[in-house]
Amino acid sequence: MKARPNWDTYFMLQAEIAKLRSNCLSRQVGCVIVKDHRQIATGYNGTPSGIKNCFEGGCPRCLDKQNNKIKPGENLERCFCTHAEANAIMQCALFRTGSTKGSTLYSTFAPCLECSKMAISVGISKIVILDSYPEDGIEILQQTSIEISKLEKQEVLSWISNLNFIT
């Protein structure tokens, strides 16, 4: 039987693909929300629809960070970018893809405090991450019944070599 990725790896690969759409200058993050082994939403970080992309000057904070005027983690309240997890959660509401209660959120980074609160509020029951995030919301998530797991990055990324792209 041909080897294939387990569900967590499969959906994390989808989150890796989603992050390719990110327009943030600081960090590219992708997210998918899954229910019953079916992807119901994707998200990536960047400026909201209708706002100039971050890499086109749409976010003054990201420009200041890129120009070394501020340090990482400073002035987060000035950032125009929406996080990947928030985008995915909002997509569920916007396109009425069904309830997120009991769903799994896959993110290439641990969700921040705000995105963690959103995940709790919409009934997400499991969060799978690939990387840590310095300002994450793990502390609040651990106070809930949400299952949190971190995948081994190399295990996930090793599947990329198995992809056969059309040339």
Tell me what you see in this structure.
The protein is an alpha/beta fold. The chain is 29% helix and 15% strand. It is built from 6 helices and 5 strands. Strands 2-1-3-4-5 form a 5-stranded mixed beta sheet, with helices on both faces.
Q: What would you say about this model in short?
A:
With 167 residues, the chain is α/β, with parallel strands linked by helices.
Which keywords apply here?
globular; about 30% helix; five-stranded mixed sheet; about 170 residues; alpha/beta; about 15% strand
**SS-based class:** alpha/beta
Q: Give the count of helical stretches.
A: 6
Strand % is 5-15%
Head-to-tail CA distance between termini: 27 Å
Main sheet: strand order: 2-1-3-4-5
Order of helices and strands: HEEHHEHEHEH
Topology overview:
Elements: H1 7-18, E1 30-35, E2 38-44, H2 60-66, H3 84-94, E3 104-107, H4 113-121, E4 126-129, H5 138-141, E5 147-150, H6 153-157
Parallel strand pairs: 3-4, 4-5
Antiparallel strand pairs: 1-2, 1-3
